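Below is how a single chain appears once it has passed through the pipeline. First comes the sequence as given, then the structure the pipeline wrote out for it. We keep one example in the README because the format questions we get most often are answered faster by looking than by reading.
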Amino acid sequence: MGKTYQRIDDRLRAFIDAQPVFFVASAPLSGDGHVNLSPKGRAGTFVVLDELTVAYLDFGGSHAETIAHLRENGRITLMWCAFTGPPKVLRVHGRGEPVFRDDPRWAELVRRFGDADGPGLRAVIVVRAELISDSCGFAVPFMDYREERSLHAEYFGRKTDGEFAAYCAGKETNVASIDGLPALPLPLPERTDDAPVH
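Resulting structure:
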């Protein structure tokens, strides 16, 4: 039987911290628009900021759907599944905001992630929970975690920040969502904090 929670307590935080992958869902306001669902990995790139606020690092990629949807309407759902141990699915429904590299909050937010920061970071997604709930997860299969993939970090680690900005500007689906909503601000703001060197 599913439960709802008033806050992200220590038990829920421990469950979140133990999962190597989570999923992010967002959508435009238009009924004709495309719902987006993205898997998120890379160890250490998700943090619980307080009992109702979470954040994750948004690295460069081929699309920026979540950013576009959040800029339009802020709606977002995060989901974690237990692939080992007792079955459980946890969801945080809320309002999200992309914090970009020229935002005064940027440096302090990025520091919360420690060594998980890296080349190709384009935003920090901050989510304020409005509904926290779980469900049984009885149909979620058991799966064994093997290791992190290093391809993403290695690929963007070979680019200077200027080359990364050009990469973002050159991808139509970074400039706008597949439904034409504004996504990344261009030109991509430069990092003004102590960006990691790799």
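The chain has one domain: 3-175.

See the next section for the split statistics.
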